[in-house]
Amino acid sequence: MTHPSPDHDQQVFNQHRNLLFSVAYRVLGTVTDAEDAVQDAWIKWSAADRSKVADPKAYLARIVSNLALQRLRSTQHQRETYVGPWLPEPILTSGDTADAITNTESVSTAMLVVLETLSPLERAVFVLKEVFGFSHAEIAEAVERSETAVRQAAHRAREHVRARRPRFTADRSQQRDVTERFLAAATGGDINTLMELLSPDVTLWTDGGGKVRQALRPVVGAQTVAAWFAAIGKVTYQGVGPAEMNAELVEINGGPGVVFRGLGRVIATVTFDFDADGRITTIHNVANPDKLQAITDGTTRDIGTP
Questions:
Q1: Are 263 and 269 in contact (CB under 8 A)?
Q2: What is the pLDDT of residues 3-41, one digit of tens each?
Q3: 240: which strand partners?
Q4: Rounded to whole angstroms, how far apart are CA atoms 237 and 107?
Q5: d(Cα 259, Cα 267) in Å, to the nearest integer?
Q6: Mind listing the pLDDT tens digit for each residue in 112-124?
Q7: Which residues are in the RNA polymerase sigma factor 70 region 4 type domain (predicted)?
Q8: CB–CB of 13/47 below 8 Å?
C-alpha cells in the first residue's frame, strides 16, 4: 500500500489551516494561543497514521478543538487574575462577501466577550456546533465527552449567548458610516456629534492589562464616554502627542474598527457594537501592547467557516 508523501500531508494540512485557526481563535480569543494550537495540530497530524483518516478536515478540526480546549483551561486562572477587563486579541479581517455576515458576527469582539463568560467546555461546544455546524457526535469525540454531555453543554451555551447577544440584521454600511463619523468627531473633539452617535447607556471597556494606563472598570453613559473620546485630539497618550497620533478606519474582527498609531507603533484598537438603530452600545478599546502584535503584523485573517 502506498502512503501519501510528506509533501502531500503538508498540502492537506495547509488546505485546512485557515479553518483550524478560525476554530482555535474563536475558542481561545487570542492569536498566539490559536497559532500554537494549530502548530500542535500539525505535530499530531504528522505523527498520525493518516492512511486511516477518511475525512482529514473533520479529523484536523477535532484535533485543534481538543488542543484549544486544553489550552483554554490552562489559561483560565491567568484571565481571572488579569488587571482590569480582559478583552480578546484583535485581528484584521476581510468580510466583504454577503455570506460573511454570520462568520463575522461569530468572531466579533462583542461575541468573543460573551463567549468568555461560558465554561471552556460550553465555549468549545458552542463554537463547533453553532458556528461550524459539527454534529453532537463529532463534537463528543473532539472534546472527549459523552454525546449527552455535549447536548446539555450546547443547550446551556446557546441559551446563555442568546440572552446576552440579541440577534438583528446588521446594516454594515450604516455601521461603517457611524464609525467614520465617530472617528471624525473624536479626533476633532466634537462632543455633541459623539453624543448623537452613542446610545445613552453606552459602555466603554478598556484593556491595558496593567501595562499601560487604562480604566480598570467599565466607563458608562454617553456623556462620560463622549468626553473620554473627545480628549483624543487634545491630550498626550503613552508619550504620543495629538499631532503624532494617526487614526485609521479598518475592519477588525469582522466589523468597522479604528487603529491608533504613533511614533512607529500601534497604540490601541477600538471596535464597536451597535443596536438595531445603528447607535453605538459598546466600545472595546485594546491598548495592552502584548495584544496588539497581530495588528502590528498587518496580516488580514480569513475567519470563514468553510
A1: no
A2: 556 677 788 888 899 999 999 999 999 999 999 999 999
A3: 237
A4: 29
A5: 8
A6: 999 999 999 999 9
A7: 111-160
A8: no
Written as nine digits, the cell of 221 is 453613559
Q: What is the DSSP string of 177-192?
A: HHHHHHHHHHHTT-HH
Do 280 and 220 touch, CB atoms closer than 8 A? no
Q: In what order do the strands lie in the sheet with 300-301?
A: 219-220, 198-207, 280-286, 265-274, 255-262, 246-252, 92-93, 300-301
Other CB atoms within 10 Å distance of the CB of residue 256: 22
DSSP 232: G
Question: Which grid coordinates are listed for 129?
Answer: 456546533
> How many Cβ atoms sit within 10 Å of the Cβ of residue 32?
13
Cell of 43: 505535530
What is the Cα Rg of the chain in Å?
20
Distance CA 192, CA 211 (A): 32
Q: Is the separation of the CB atoms in 176 and 164 below 8 Å?
A: no
What cell numbers appear for 29 in the block?
480569543
b/e map 34-67, b = 16+ CB within 10 Å: bbbbbebbbeebeeeebeeeeeeebbbbbbbbbb
What is the percentage of the chain residues whose pLDDT exceeds 90?
70
Distance (Å, whole) CA 191 – CA 202: 15
Are 58 and 138 spatial neighbours (Cβ–Cβ below 8 Å)?
Answer: yes
Pairing of strands 92-93, 300-301: parallel
Query: What angle is formed at CA 92 by the lines to CA 86 and CA 98, rounded to 5 degrees?
Result: 115
User: pLDDT tens for residues 114-163?
Assistant: 999 999 999 999 999 999 999 999 999 999 999 999 999 999 999 999 99
Question: What torsion, rounded to 10 degrees, do the Cα atoms 218, 219, 220, 225 define?
Answer: -150
Residue carrying the nine cell digits 460550553 = 122
